[in-house]
Design brief:
Length: about 375
């Protein structure tokens, strides 16, 4: 009898939470979202470019900052890789402390300096500071440093949920802004003076730029290149990335929590018996932007993880000077491997297509939703 009651109690512990989940699920929209971004007035684009002009140096100094224990992969690496391709600014990767920077959901890198060392070398501050999403919104070292940089005249660019860190520093109070769709409600609740701007992939207001989700870092950086060096240079870099066009158009209503999204995440999480562990060979000169996009995408399926392997434990330098550390020391990978040899925009589209082929279109849609990527075949 006791065993029977124990089994019934165990069943209740499973069924009741699932029933609650089912009720919550029923409240979510069921219809698939569509992507129909409104046009951006030319005057608005011109004003954005004017606001992003270099504030100090003819050849600007750009600092990309991260915390050591968890900084978003693509937010951190894509600005570095794209800006160094353009060779129109000096770009420095920073960390709060000495030692490796663990990116999430994949990869580990070595920053070129700590923020303390950067300040010693550049007491006048940076021209631009790029702020990725981080696991701690109110890291005191980062928020204090951002305030000092802004006071020194730097343009602060918050990529994705990096807006939360910039807001914690007090730099979004009373400003127009945007952020990743998933964090928007919380951001506005904690900082009610922020004036949210929908349907804009990037927003600039008085020396602070913000963007929507992860893949918005590509058009944001191309816009920054255009502001610094002109349209021709930005078009050339876009072509090198495999991108046909870019602008700030966005359909904010197409990115939200839906019933299909939640059901797919739950299903994939519960499929614990079927997990993929992919390897990527870490090789000198590989494209860090493609690497970031492919590793990021595959790590967001709730069905797979990505690890980098190399023959030795030392850091490997990418095409544009990022020092990446392997996760595993091995000459070969025992399981399935991923390729990152395409142009970045095509690499992401290819990864989403392969994810759909392996795990279904719904899983690829979940990944694209997390990346806030419109999936229109022309790149991010």
């Amino acid at each position: 009898m006791f065993t029977r009651y124990l089994l019934l109690a165990g069943l209740a512990l499973v069924v009741l939470p699932l029933a609650g989940f089912g009720l919550w699920l029923a409240t979510l929209p069921a219809a698939p979202v569509t992507f129909a971004p409104p046009a951006i007035p030319l005057a608005e684009t011109d004003a954005m470019l004017a606001a992003l002009k270099p504030p100090k140096r003819a050849r600007p100094l750009v600092a990309v900052v991260g915390i050591n224990d968890a900084t978003e992969t693509t937010d951190y690496l894509m600005p570095v890789g794209i800006l160094r391709r353009a060779d129109i600014a000096d770009v420095v990767t920073l960390s709060t402390e000495a030692g490796p920077v663990k990116l999430y959901p994949a990869l580990t890198v070595e920053a070129e300096a700590t923020i303390e060392a950067f300040d010693a070398l550049h007491p006048e501050g940076a021209d631009y500071v790029i702020v990725p999403a981080m696991s701690h919104d109110e890291d005191p070292l980062v928020t204090a440093w951002l305030r000092r940089q802004a006071e020194g005249g730097a343009v602060v660019v918050a990529v994705c949920a990096g807006a939360k860190i910039v807001a914690a520093a007090g730099l979004l109070d009373g400003r127009r802004a945007t952020t990743h769709w998933y964090y928007l409600e919380n951001l506005l609740k904690r900082h009610p003076s922020i004036r949210y701007v929908p349907d804009g992939r990037m927003v600039v207001d008085r020396g602070v730029a913000t963007t929507t989700g992860i893949t918005a870092s590509m058009p944001m950086v191309l816009t920054l290149i255009e502001a610094i060096a002109g349209r021709g240079k930005a078009e050339a870099i876009a072509g090198d990335l495999g991108l046909g066009s870019w602008d700030s158009r966005h359909d904010s209503g197409a990115f939200r929590l839906t019933r299909p999204f939640a059901k797919t995440v739950l299903r994939n999480r519960l499929a614990f018996w079927s997990r993929d562990r992919f390897g990527i060979a870490l090789e000198p000169g590989m494209d860090e932007v493609s690497l970031a996009l492919v590793a990021d995408a595959w790590s967001r399926t709730y069905r797979s993880s990505v690890e980098l392997f190399a023959a030795s434990s030392g850091a490997v330098t990418t095409r544009n000077g990022v020092r990446v550390l392997p996760d595993k020391i091995a000459n070969t990978w025992p399981g399935q491997r991923l390729s990152v040899d395409e142009q970045p925009a095509k690499a992401l589209d290819g990864a989403l297509q392969e994810i759909a082929a392996r795990h279904g279109r719904d899983t690829a849609d979940v990944v694209a939703m997390q990346l806030e990527y419109p999936q229109r075949g022309s790149g991010p």
